[in-house]
Write a structure and sequence with these properties.
390 residues; alpha/beta; Endonuclease, Chain A; 2 domains; two-stranded parallel sheet; 15 helices; 37% helix; globular
């Protein structure tokens, strides 16, 4: 069984967690800001992209205000993802006593030939009480466009319960891996104590909404490719239906083989990728292997309505994934990633309802249309595939 694999090999599930799920940045980022403003002890924010646009400045202002109120604020941002950030925008937070770490600064990473080692995680932990995890970065494109409609579509989760302690431990892991990372002592991170207390009799989570969940951390320091192996296990053990949603879909031969084998067993396998993308090279590269997927019975769809940035999956009604990992070489081999694994029907049903192929804007890719590509288009597609596999 799928859950036997992830329990035995990768993660430890905990009971008594509560999830609130978001399929857009308007609601997700607003919920994050609301929790930051309520923080009493510590705020730990880790993001790949932090911009100094309106959305980024709102977050920095909220962090600064909490730091001025005596709350311990720690911020990690990736140097490459946040290359457009005006570093002067951090000055108010630093003057207020907040701490900020830039992961793998570009100048150092270029000299060390480690530019592809990135912190692609997106975590927010408040007082060890509540956590956020998913695909949302901190920038205007995730919030609202000119007409009030988000230009990017994503998936994010707000969690309470013992799993929050594991999220905070993943934050601590990355803090100590930063160049200027100071020791991460218990005084600054009450997550373990809070999580332990939350699983006891006095916890306020509604029993009807308690969920078994686990944190799947992945990155260059781990021996196994944890996300890749979990996806392969899910595909190999699925019996009825699978939905994979990945904006940058170039997973490699082992995942592609498992997709086709699942479909050949009669599993309903659907893949949703971005049709409107900030990295169109992935859309072109996918044309090289999509015909084989379609021929095996896998159904592939493109979301061309907005930039679809969600990284989610649902295997039967057993296991769901919401996180930061794309199914491409960069995420699976080079970046630090983190995902939430969730048991049960409710989350799987939400993923299918919000990101399934029946939603507006997702159109099926037809094998006949791909067969009509000219030689130049095919050459460009194979060149794109070569580049994304480097």
């Amino acid at each position: 069984m799928i859950l036997d694999f992830v329990n035995r090999r990768v993660v430890e599930f905990t009971d008594g967690n509560q999830l609130d799920l978001f399929d857009n940045g308007v609601e997700g980022l607003a919920a994050m800001l609301d929790e930051i403003e309520r923080a009493q002890h510590c705020v730990h924010l880790e993001t790949y992209i932090l911009r100094s646009d309106d959305t980024g400045l709102r977050f920095l202002a909220a962090l600064t205000e909490r730091s001025q109120a005596g709350v311990q604020v720690r911020l990690i941002y990736d140097s490459l993802g946040s290359r457009a950030l005006d570093r002067m925008a951090l000055d108010p937070l630093l003057r207020a006593g907040g701490l900020a770490n830039e992961f793998n600064p570009l100048g150092q990473s270029i000299r060390a030939r480690m530019i592809r080692r990135r912190d692609h995680r997106k975590l927010l932990i408040i007082d060890g009480r509540v956590g956020f995890i998913g695909g949302l970065n901190i920038g205007d494109e995730y919030a609202a466009g000119v007409d009030g409609t988000p230009t990017w579509r994503d998936a994010h989760a707000r969690v309470e319960g013992p799993v929050v302690g594991e999220l905070d431990r993943r934050f601590a892991e990355m803090w100590t891996r930063c160049e200027t990372g100071s020791p991460f002592d218990d005084e600054m991170s009450p997550a373990d104590e809070t999580a332990s207390a939350s699983s006891g009799a006095g916890h306020t989570i509604d029993a009807a909404r308690r969920t078994r969940a686990a944190v799947l951390a992945d990155g260059p320091i781990y021996r196994r490719r944890r996300m890749r192996d979990t996806v392969i296990s899910g595909l190999d053990e699925a019996r009825s239906r699978v939905l994979l949603v990945s904006p940058y879909f170039a997973p490699g031969r082992s995942v592609l083989d498992s997709l086709m084998q699942a479909a050949s067993r009669g599993v309903e396998v659907e893949v949703l990728m971005a049709g409107r993308s900030d990295h169109p090279i992935f859309r072109r590269a996918a044309r090289t292997f999509i015909p084989r997927l379609l021929a095996s019975g896998v159904r592939v769809f493109e979301d061309s309505e907005r930039m679809m940035h969600a990284k989610v999956a649902a295997f039967d009604d057993q296991l769901s994934i919401i996180g930061t990992s794309n199914l491409d070489r960069q995420s699976l081999h080079h970046s630090y990633e983190v995902s939430l694994l969730v048991e049960g029907r409710e989350t799987a049903a939400w993923i299918r309802r919000r990101f399934g192929p029946g939603r507006t804007g997702a159109r099926p890719i037809e094998i006949d249309a791909l067969a009509k590509r000219g030689w130049l288009a095919r050459l460009i597609d194979y060149a794109a595939w070569t580049l994304v596999r480097i």
